[in-house]
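Limitations

Structures in this collection are predictions, not experimental determinations, and the ligand pose is part of the prediction. Treat each record accordingly. The example that follows, with 6-O-phosphono-beta-D-fructofuranose as the small molecule, is included so readers can see exactly what is and is not provided: the inputs are given verbatim, and the output is the predicted complex.
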Amino acid sequence: MAHRPRIGILTGGGDCPGLNAVIRAATKSAMRLGYDVVGFLRGYEGLVDPVSYMPLDAHNTAGILLEGGTILGSTNKGRFTSLVGEGERVQIDPQLVSQAATTVRQLGITGLICVGGDGSLGIAQQLHEHGVPVVGVPKTIDNDLCCTAFTFGFDSAVATATDALDRLHTTAASHERIMVLEVMGRHAGWIALHAGIAGGGDVILIPEIEWTFENVCRKVMEREAEGKRSTLIVVAEGAQQPGGGLVHAGCSGEGQVKLGGIGDIVGREVGRRLGRDVRTVVLGHLQRGGTPTPFDRMLATEFGAHAARLVHEGRFGEMVCYTPPDIASVLISAAIGRLSTVDPRGSAVQAARALGIGFGDDEDDGPFEGGAARSPGNV
Ligand code: F6P
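Predicted complex:
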């Protein structure tokens, strides 16, 4: 019996809700296009010695639409990500690249779908430059990838952070407390901004807007003058301290700084200055786990199906993207190496300011100027 052509798929970098939905969609649609599908295990590691992969089909991808994580495993450490500097282009050992290319050739893979964030797509681009037929799918809870309005995983992370704020409201109100919630997002404030607005936060501190403790405390005092005895402050892990400086706990295995700790600094300093009882919650990896939201399932499904179609059409070196209302594609090279960050003049920030939400800057009390008309996603 003649072999059907094969599509490969792998998930690289940090996991996020919706990866399984992509795997399922890519598998199902690739099979309907006449392909067999294999999934490489533990990201790009599965492509090299010892090569590890599993066949994917309608049976073993059934029911995974709503599962968090990735059935293929992933890694943001390992041989493909070593020596990666923050914001720098990933430089992979050429031997690994040629091993990966050999695996793809030997297994008769027509196209390799690489699902990942900026770093993983940077690796995909290098494989592509060495002749490996790759197609990219953007994922990250941080929503910081260029050329796509949203990455799947983001909406689920925002839902988790919003739920945390909903819960913090009641306990903060009961105890008339100031509470700080630190959320993820690396160098982009998307999660803090969207969850802060959706969860009724009072102050939102993000990397894109310089803030001071004076302004944060002033906002709390203004609220108290209005009789509001509790305040919720949402802090993005990448929000720099006044005067500059990221707060982090050393380096992770892949050469990136492990962000975290700014929430505690904000909580302690605001408490000290105001003589108030402040509690801080760090949401951490809870934002990466669990069931994807319906929006993320939908986006991931469209991405997976579109990626299979790109392979079928031989459009290698491209990455699927969401340009509302369409799912489209761009060159991977156009999307990597530069971050999509919050526009401080964008509609979401302006709407928040119009409601009196503070960003810890001098514009907190300024007149609402109205931003240029932009999409609700502020991208
Ligand atoms: O990029 C996704 C992300 O969750 C960031 O928001 C966070 O800073 C980082 O990954 C955490 O990485 P790790 O899982 O290596 O701790």
